[in-house]
Specification:
Layout: H1 4-59, H2 67-81, E1 83-89, H3 113-119, E2 125-132, E3 135-145, E4 157-163, H4 165-214, H5 230-280, H6 286-318, E5 325-327, H7 330-348, E6 350-356, E7 364-366, H8 367-383, E8 388-397, E9 400-407, H9 414-417, H10 438-448, E10 452-458, E11 462-470
Parallel strand pairs: 6-8
Antiparallel strand pairs: 1-4, 2-3, 3-4, 5-7, 8-9, 9-11, 10-11
Helix pairs in contact: 1-2, 1-4, 5-6, 6-10, 7-8, 8-10
Length: about 475
């Protein structure tokens, strides 16, 4: 696993697991501590009740009680139950001989008969904390003999019980040790799992990074494998889509350069030939010189026209050509088209039909650009129709205006139809003065208006170009 992202991913996994272990340990010990205290108090009450019966029996003997017998009894019982047992008078002072092995702070339990009588629970025991040795220990205290009842202890006798170190802390320490070992084992396992998961997540990212690095000139065919988590698959799919567009643009650019070179080569070759002939004196006849200069002039105009069209097309494709929209008067538009192409159609022996179907809507469009589109379409229709009809019709369609240019000309083969709006494209069977840019420009103008342009054609039957513009 390489890279800063992989390390951060691994550290994130490991950190989450560590935090979960710490939180789980804190919650567990908190709950376990309370549960352990409840069990301790219950066991202390049970053991203390049994012991207190024996102690009271001895203390209530009519004659006297044997101190050594009492101490021996308490020690045996305490050792058996893992207890520390302390006897005090009614004021809470420890009776001699009943001090715990490591001493009680100040020799006093901090409680007296009055307090116990007022606050002890229904079992007769009172929860307390005694500072024995160097620890504060949860303890239970109760009255064994009330004041003025014991023959030798007029102030009464109290008993305090708590667990010794071995009893209270032994099982807990053992459990803590096991939990620590288990936690460390879980942490090691979590680290291993985190490493494996990080590697699994990073592998498709590393493969994608390698593809991105190698993608470039002469390697536009590189594509990323769409595998791994959902986000990585989506990223790879987005890269592949981008790579497809880059490849298409690269091919289009190369094709464009080749097409421009081809289109410029012919006029430049012609111009060069005539200029060299004039320069070398090969052409001396004034009439032929004038004719050669006219050819040079026309070829120059042709190249200039083509370059202007290319610039116009580039602006349209880049969205840099602003439309000057206005309300289009169809009668005015069709009248202008009639003046532009009527005489030419009559000269070619072709019937030019112009029709505005009732209900055709008025649209907002760039008048000059719309005229440019119709000029391109009608010019192509007249150029490739030897006899018959060329028609321009306007009608309402799909909440917009439909302009349809149809002819009865030579038609276009089905396999060529999909290339009709490509720049520089012309069918092999067609020859003419155009550079093959008019329909490509028309398509971009229609798109800029939010419309669409389509073509339908049959060989030896005719072609129909349909332009739809939103109303």
């Amino acid at each position: 696993m390489t890279g800063g992202y992989g390390l951060r991913l691994f550290a994130g996994f490991a950190g989450i697991v560590l935090v979960m272990l710490i939180v789980s340990a804190v919650v567990f010990f908190s709950l376990f501590g309370g549960y352990r205290d409840d069990i301790d108090r219950s066991e202390l009450r049970t053991a203390g009740n049994a012991l207190s019966v024996e102690i009271v029996r001895i203390l209530r003997r009519a004659a006297s009680y044997d101190r050594e017998e009492l101490i021996t009894l308490i020690r045996e019982q305490a050792q058996h139950a893992g207890l520390i047992v302390i006897l005090t008078d009614g004021d809470g002072r420890v009776i001699q001989g009943f001090e715990p092995a490591r001493g009680l702070k100040d020799g006093h339990v901090g409680l007296n008969y009055t307090v116990l009588a007022a606050k002890s629970d229904t079992s007769g025991w009172y929860d307390a904390k005694l500072h024995i040795g160097d620890k504060w220990r949860p303890s239970l205290v109760r009255v064994l003999i009330p004041p003025n009842v014991a023959s030798r202890r007029d102030s009464g006798v109290l008993m305090a019980v708590t667990f010794g170190d071995e009893r209270r802390f032994g099982s807990l320490d053992e459990l803590v040790g096991r939990l620590i070992v288990s936690g460390l084992a879980g942490l090691v396992a979590a680290v291993i799992i985190a490493m494996l998961l990080s590697r699994q997540l990073m592998r498709p990212l590393e493969a994608l990074t390698d593809v991105v690095r190698r993608f470039g000139p002469d390697r536009y065919d590189m594509r990323a494998a769409e595998s791994g988590p959902t986000q990585v698959r989506e990223l790879a799919a987005a890269f592949n889509a981008m790579a497809d567009r880059v490849s298409d643009n690269e091919r289009a650019m190369r094709g464009f350069i080749a097409d421009v070179s081809h289109e410029l080569r012919t006029p430049l070759t012609s111009i060069r030939g005539f200029v060299e002939a004039l320069r070398d004196g090969t052409v001396t006849d004034p009439e032929r010189q004038a004719s050669s200069l006219e050819v040079v002039h026309e070829e120059t105009r042709r190249m200039l026209r083509m370059l202007e069209q290319l610039l116009d097309l580039s602006r349209l494709e880049a969205g840099q050509s602003r439309l000057q929209r206005s309300r289009i008067d169809l009668d005015e538009l069709f009248g202008y088209i009639e003046s532009m192409f009527g005489a030419r159609a009559t000269e070619q022996g072709i019937e030019l039909r112009l029709e505005i179907v009732p209900g055709a809507p008025t649209i907002e469009a760039d008048y000059d650009r719309l005229v440019q589109v119709l000029n391109n379409l009608l010019d192509n229709a007249l150029r490739h129709t030897s006899e018959g009809v060329v028609e321009l019709a306007a009608r309402a369609a799909d909440d917009g205006l439909e302009l349809r240019v149809s002819d009865t000309g030579e038609g276009i083969a089905p396999e060529d139809l999909e290339h009709l709006f490509d720049r520089f494209w012309q069918p092999e069977s067609r020859t003419g003065p155009g550079a093959g840019l008019g329909l490509a420009i028309s398509r971009e103008i229609v798109r800029a208006h939010g419309g669409r342009i389509t073509a339908d054609s049959r060989l030896n039957t005719g072609t129909t170009i349909t332009v739809w513009l939103p109303a």
